[in-house]
Amino acid sequence: MQNLAEVWKSYYKSSSSKDGSPRAQALLALSDVWTERTYPSKQEYWKYVPFSSLARANYILANNEKVNRIGLSESGVLSIEINSFDGASIEVGDLPKGVSVLCPRDLVNKEGVWTHWGFESSTDPFVQSLRSFWEMGFILVIDEEVVLDQPIQLTYQLDSYVNQNVLAPFQIKVVVGKRARVEWLNHTQAEKFMGFANTMLSVELGEGSHFEYCGKEWGGQGSQIMAHLHCLGRKDSNFLATDVTFSGLWSRHNVRSDLLGKGAQSQLRGVYLSHKNHFCDHHTEIRHAQANTQSEQVYKGILNDQTRAVFNGKVFIAPGAKGSHSQQLNKNLVLSNAAEIDTKPELQIYNDDVKATHGATIGQIDPEQVFYLQSRGLSKEVSWKMLSRAFVHDLFESVSQNQQDFLHEDLDRGLAEVLGGQNGL
Amino acid sequence: MLLNIKNLHASVDEKPVLKGLDLQVQPGEVHAIMGPNGSGKSTLSKVVAGHPDYEVTEGKLEYEINFKMKDLTELDPDERAKEGIFMAFQYPVEVPGVSNFEFLHASYNAMARHQGFPEMDDATFRNFLDGKMEQVKMRKEFLDRGVNSGFSGGEKKRNEILQMAVLSPRLAFLDETDSGLDIDALKVVADGVNSLRSEERAIVLVTHYQRLLDYIKPDFVHVLANGKIVKSGGPELALKLEEEGYDWIIKP
Q: What is the spatial distance between Cα A169 and Cα A85, in angstroms, rounded to a whole number?
């Protein structure tokens, strides 16, 4: 048993002992960087993040002899099950036409495996560490013009690691060809998980392509989840992400959208529900690199007990990104006196020909609304639940039926848990 | 007796508003409570409905439940509602994000569970609502909008009467339901209320003007001034108030 930095360091060393390639040497160098720096709690980007639980815990690398699978299910859905985080290959079944899977092991001996991952420029230590766990993951390639009529469904099954301080890194890259269309349902199941998961979904969107992401994360008393969602959008591409987080002990989401081509758009929506002593943090970063790019962000949080939540929304509009639009809104419903939220918009705008707005609110349940509902025979608990649901309601109005079905029951259960009341109206 | 109020004192923010109010209501009766602004009219409705900002400091506030007079102050607002007390709000609250249908349905089923009659599923309840909506001339699209959200003043008031029709209360307080209504909307609301008059149900109209009483004929008219009922009579009292104002009663 070792702490996080030690696990990573010994992992790098064991890989380097297997081959003396430049890759292995670079891994080793990276491990030193991480170890020297230890935890990045002094940096603004990681402000508020309690690293002490990570630093104190002793971790082991995941090893449960389970397999990962990707393939078409009987109902014709492309499903991805991630059950193992120990570097095992992924079993590839039938795939829809125009979809292929590349496993990193197949790429190792080819030049530039990291180019495929595309993390070179990241200074995020968690991204860097993923880079060193390069074989835990795969690349999914969607050919040009391919339109998947059913959503791809991914499940991170972390609940099989109970009572173990497991380190679970995993990364998926999706390369979406020109004018292709993909809907992606992402389920992170970690209610019983006792460990640290570090996952990345990185999407590269070709010209005119469309990627619609919908994620739900269920954390628990001992779960610690670092989730990265990155998107590079070329000309006229469209990235939509709706993320619902039922925060466990420790949850951090880093969402980044690079609008690299003219007319690229991204829309990020998020709901986070957090209670008890849980920590729940969303950092978004949108980079408008080209003209006429558009971004919209709406994040809403419902917070109870002694929870600590953070929202930080960075928007960067480059000098050349004329005619760009950016909107950002963060709203929080705080149900207890002891809950805390730190919300911060961060706009950096380097040209005058833009429209950019931002707003943040922190509020409570309106007692007049509660009285109104109560005066119609609804109990206080039911009223609170209805009003909390109403608070996040608009975020789900425009999502597809698939996504509504994917989220509906979880949202009810999540609200009931956060409110500490009974389920069902 | 359905409602028995004796020497009722109530305060909001520790400021006394009701100062010894008496009112008795029997099933089937329609009462009108009139009075100048600031006399405590709205406070009376809110105290009966159980608004948490209003504190009863003295006197009796009793309501008949299972043939026994029960102290209302012991019941939460939702418990009072489930026992058949309804207040039509002067300013109905907007609840965006909760659809009118979801709200009415949840509310109806909460009553049903409590009173021991069968709950309705979505389809049955929609059918049941059809007739009620016609009664108050509301278009069906209102069901799928947020509760009172973006409704005009008249639409909000009609929505209150719709809720009353759906929940079928034993005692309804209509708090300034006529305020802000044009004559056509007033007729619709009055027709709705009249169709809900029954032997078992008592209605208390709280109003500033006599206008509403042209359309809903009360059995009793009371004048509320400075937190007390200062005069009671039949419908003719309302007409006299319309002609002569409140001064002749209120002057010491």
A: 6
Q: Could you tell me if A373 lies within 8 Å of chain B, comparing CB atoms?
A: yes
Q: Pairing between strand B95-99 and B146-147? A: antiparallel
A325 is a domain residue = yes
Give CA–CA dist A421/A381, Å, rounded: 6
Residue A397 lies in a domain: no
How much is the average pLDDT of A162-167? Answer: 78
Structural domain harbouring B70: 3-250
Tell me how far apart the alpha carbons of residues B165 and B174 are, in angstroms, rounded to a whole number: 13
pTM above 0.90, yes or no: no
CA separation for the pair A264, A246 (Å, rounded): 30
Q: Tokens 């960075």 appear where? A: A314
Q: Would you call A372 and B95 a contact, using CB atoms and an 8 Å cutoff?
A: yes
Q: Which phi and psi (to 5°) does residue B202 adopt? A: -110, 145
Q: For residue B203, give the nearest of B195, B214, B231, B211 by alpha carbon.
A: B195
Nearest 5°: the CA angle A144, A150, A154 is 95
Q: Which domain holds residue A332?
A: 67-364
| Cβ neighbours for A358, distance < 8 A, ≥ 6 positions apart | A313, A315, A327, A328, A329, A345, A347
Check residue A423 and give its pLDDT: 36
Q: Which residues, in sequence order, are bridge partners of residue A253? A: A227, A282
Are B97 and A394 a contacting pair at CB < 8 A? Answer: yes
Sign of CA dihedral B39, B42, B45, B48: negative
Please tell me the distance in Å from B72's CA to the nearest CA on chain A.
13
Q: State whether A375 and B107 contact (CB < 8 Å).
A: no
Q: How far is A305 from chain B (nearest CA, A)?
A: 23
Residue A46: per-residue pLDDT: 82
CA nearest to A92, candidates A71, A67, A62: A71
Look at residue A55 and tell me if it is in a domain: no
User: How far apart, in whole angstroms, are the C-alpha atoms of residue B132 and residue B136?
Assistant: 7
Domain count, chain B: 1
Of A172, A181, A243, the closest CA to residue A211 belongs to A181
Torsion-angle region of residue B98: left (phi > 0), alpha (psi -120 to 50) or beta?
Answer: beta
Pairwise CB contact (< 8 Å): B81 & A377: yes
Instruction: Tally the domains of chain A.
Output: 1
Would you state the pLDDT for residue A53? 66
Assess whether pLDDT exceeds 50 at residue A424: no
For range B62-89, the mean pLDDT: 97
Residue A42, in any domain of the structure: no
Across the interface, whether the CB atoms of A368 and B93 are under 8 A apart is answered yes
Q: What's B183's domain CATH number?
A: 3.40.50.300
- A374: closest chain B residue by CA: B78
* Residue B170 DSSP class: S
C-beta of residue B238 within 8 angstroms of C-beta of residue B212: no
